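Quick check before the chapter quiz. The format below is the same one you will see on the exam, so make sure you can read both the input and the output lines.
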Amino acid sequence: MIIDPRHLMQLTAIVNAGSYSEAAKRLGLTQPALSRNIRILEKIIGARVLERGRNGVTPTDIGLKLTTHGHTILSSLEQAKGLAEAVSSGDAGELRIGCLQMVVNTVLAAPLEEFVASRPGIRVKAEIGPSPLIQSRLRSGHLDLTIMRLTLAEISNEIEIEEILGDELVVVCPKKHRLAKSKDVAKENLSDSRWLVYSTLVYGADADRILPNLGVKMENVAVETDSQELLFHLLEEGKYLSLLPRRFVQDTRLEDFVTMVSLPERVQLRPIGIAYRKPYDLPPLASDFLAHLRARIG
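Here is the expected output.
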């Protein structure tokens, strides 16, 4: 036995209106079509659901019970309609963001907190990781937008990119190091120090090119690690210099115990920016957050 839910809603409308004619007007149906649908319902269940009388139409016992299900369907439809309207307007739904670890605090945290506070009906899923990973997640459709190193993002017909922040490498030294009080350093001041290379960051693979250009021999690299925890620990110990992106230092607790010193020659890094699917593929919620992020950073 299969009952058409529309027939239950129409039965409920007739009971609420008290007549076929009034219910037909409210439903946008003709009275004959409405009467035909009720006959189909009665045939399916094998019992009358409505009785006609001088005072209009009244439900039978079974008809009255069926109207409770009609009310449930109508209520669910109204809730679904409300949810759909909220999602369409950006007031509900899920926002999926990917972000490079090094700019979570300086770029993402404050705008995201403001946005979530202004829209209590939304849910945010934030994935933090290296640029290649979040770029892959964006392309596969698992993320709506990402904040990452832009030149690692291949330009395509599906992805838009916007630059938001430049970045550069700086010498990072413990505050008790002899170079810590220098505003800038000469190459000769770098060559006799021991160095720590953080290979997770984008410049890590180019360390064997960048450091010699600064007069630092690769044999002066004492430690190379992909562990942020070890990086922090060794820098806090005060034994090593390191070469890190300025944004990374600003976004972490490193500034508590290190000093940034500008290089003799600036080494520009790939800019940080926003990558997202073309606007026609962007959900309303993601589109609204993108506008908020632009305004906040700009």
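If your answer matched, good. The mean pLDDT is 82.
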